Amino acid sequence: MSKSIDPKKRPMPKQEPFERIKNFEEVALGYTPELAREEASRCLSCKKPLCIDGCPVGIDIPRFIQYVADGDFSGGIRKLKEKNALPAVCGRVCPQEDQCEKVCILGKKNEPVAIGRLERFLADWEAASGAIEKPDIAPPKKKRVAVVGSGPAGITVASDLALLGYEVAMFEALHEAGGVLTYGIPEFRLPKAIVKREVEYVRSLGVKLYLDFIVGKTRTVDNLLEEFDAIFIGAGAGLPWFMEIPGENLNGVYSANEYLTRCNLMKGFRFPAYNTPLKRASHVAVFGGGNVAMDSARTALRLGADEVHIVYRRSRSEMPARIEEIENAEEEGVIFDYLTLPIRLIGDEQGWLTEMECLRMELGEPDESGRRRPVPIKGSEFRMKVDAAVCAIGNSPNPLIPMTTPGLDIGKKGNIEADEATGKTSREGIWAGGDVVTGAATVISAMGAGRKAAKSIHETLCK
Amino acid sequence: MYRIIERRMMVPNLHELTVHAPEVVKLVRPGNFVILRPDEAGERMPLSVADWDPEGETVTSIFLQVGASTAKLARLKPGDMIPTYAGPLGKETEIANFGTVLCIGGCYGIGSIYPIARALHEAGNTVYTLLEARSQYLLYWREKFAKVSARVMEVTRDGSAGYKGHLTRLPEILTLEKIKPDRIIVNGCTFQMMKTSEVTRGLGIKTIVNMNPIMIDGTGMCGVCRLTVAGKTKFACVDGPDFDGHEVDWEEFLKRRETYNPEEVHPLRKSGCASHF
């Protein structure tokens, strides 16, 4: 028996571009139950599903999709949450095209099943139903675990260990939990109400959350070891890189972290009702080609810029951003200057950015990342008028813990060295995972690292 | 939430703020700062620490009321709660037995240099303190400094206390007072730290300044506090806030500090709390 399968994913309903560039509300609106069931019925329920291996946290994808196809949404969300504490987040920001959906059999000839959209649908359906189900929590163990950082890695470790009965304390340096989900990813891609909901869920499992608590400063890791049996460090990649070109300290030049934090965490887009200012620039250049660059450019548009450029030294096919985000930015009118390298920022007498000088590039031989290396074209210098520039070229791990924790092995890029399979660091009782180990990566890979570390902590403390 | 224990105006526009902060007080050291928010809509603001009490679990700062956010702070009363008070942040001021140290404080920096003078005194240094203000009525904490200093001196613009003039008179003051410092530490407004660094360069005396840029998170995450020191970009929040005053690019620093001056004043005009603007 064979069933005919629609070659395309059910399209995601979205706000129209002309409408959405005037607001900060979510762009993608989510599937209706009908769309979700139709999309779920495209799944072949493979005997040997490749998608599960494609998922860093090993969600039983065919099973949860089967529940959706059958219309049993509560069964679906239960299945999903067995492996993923943050389905509403992952459904929105995971790079599914490089993970589960990349290996989907349907994708060989047609479009893969829209796994991410179905994941998001179930999480939103559960939230809308108002009855958030809590899994069973194991009887309390008399062991205490400190989790440093409340981003994706920390949340995963905290919820996994809380479910196993551990007493978990989660420490957050900022005044709101969520890490990069809160300060970095904009409202229009990941509404903060969803992050709050997920954090509340983790707290409902018994995790104690301490805000304004900067591990490495408020208390050192060694101070915490006096009170806790194990520590997981998921402090993130919190030190922005700059281009190291002249003029980078001019007023109007931002790290993406600053630009996005002013907007997301501090709600600068609502200045002066919220007191943190965010300049309204007319010509904005964003340097970089990742998701953070897309987020920054789209934020600039929504703040009312006349022209927003993404300046990237390679071409579109080398861009690390998710295709969906690149398309969203293109639809919204962001101008992409490919094969372009900023070499100098120029300011006025008051120290404000007014112009930048760039070089045109061409692609040469592949470099160590496998992408073709951009090579400057001699004499191709040109200038462009800009009054704001945002550097979105990456981050190093936050230095506060490496600086204050003797005996912790630190890599060349300032990252904490940790075993990939277990998250164990060079010091007993200390685990680490997420961006603080790998440098800036994805939400789901941080969650995957958190999952492995939680398992290793559990095995160690059970001995 | 964090409870306000005391908030009073010490001298015109300069306020003392004492907050119940049991977590912050445990590891606080001279030269550190805290980040606070006056209310849920408020900015994150860095304030240098000026004193603390481990038993009462309180931390004290002195702040200058300049814009909308500090105006909010200035309206706090004992018993009020604020949503954010995080720290201690920044590297502590280097404390060792240097021999003779001159501590210079102006504006809110009179407050933040106090624990530095105290720690240097306890470390065996001969500590001289020089307080700077526009006029005598803007000076405070002289009695606290007297306990930890070999001598407390003053310099005022109008000559109403101590030497008349500005810190540009420092070489002359040092000669008159017969002080040969091995190190000078300056806390206060940018202009004062810059001017002092300019005159001590000629004297060949190592001069430490406690930088006060715009900050948001205070943990190295955003980079808004960057400045150029000895030709390299540094983040004041994690690499400082103390730097060698002779290595700081002051011109760039002053411009960066002015980034949000219009926005700083704008909400103040609208808030109705400072109708004279």
Protein model, in words:
The complex is a heterodimer of chains A (463) and B (277). The model of chain A has no long low-confidence stretch (mean pLDDT 93). Chain A is an alpha/beta fold and 463 residues long. In chain A, β8, α14 and β9 form a beta-alpha-beta unit. In chain A, 33% of the residues lie in helices and 16% in strands. In chain A, strands 3-2-1-4-16 form a five-stranded parallel β-sheet. In chain A, strands 6-14-7-8-9 form a five-stranded parallel β-sheet. In chain A, α8 runs parallel beside α17 and α13 packs parallel to α14. Chain B is α/β, with parallel strands linked by helices and 277 residues long. Chain B is built from nine helices and 17 strands. Chain B has a seven-stranded mixed β-sheet, with helices on both faces. In chain B, β3 and β4 form a beta hairpin. In chain B, α3 packs parallel to α4. The longest helix of chain B is centred in the middle third of the chain and has 14 residues. The radius of gyration of chain B is 18 Å and the shape is globular. The C terminus of chain B is likely disordered. At the A-B interface, β5 and α12 of A face α2, β8, β15, α8 and α9 of B.
> How would you sum up the global shape of chain A?
globular
Structural class of chain A: alpha/beta
Number of helices of chain A: 17
What percent of residues of chain B are in strands?
25-35%
Portion of residues within helices of chain A: 25-40%
Cα end-to-end separation of chain B: 32 Å
Shape of chain B: globular
Looking across the biggest beta sheet of chain A, what order are the strands in?
A: 3-2-1-4-16
Number of helices of chain B: 9
Main β-sheet, spatial strand arrangement of chain B: 12-11-10-9-13-14-17
Which structural class should the secondary elements of chain B be placed in?
A: alpha/beta
Oligomeric status:
heterodimer
β-strand amount of chain A: 15-25%
Query: Number of DSSP strands of chain B?
Result: 17
| Overall pLDDT of chain B | 92
Largest interface: A-B, 43 and 44 residues
pLDDT below 50 for ≥5 consecutive residues: which ranges of chain A?
none
Report mean pLDDT of chain A, rounded to a whole number: 93
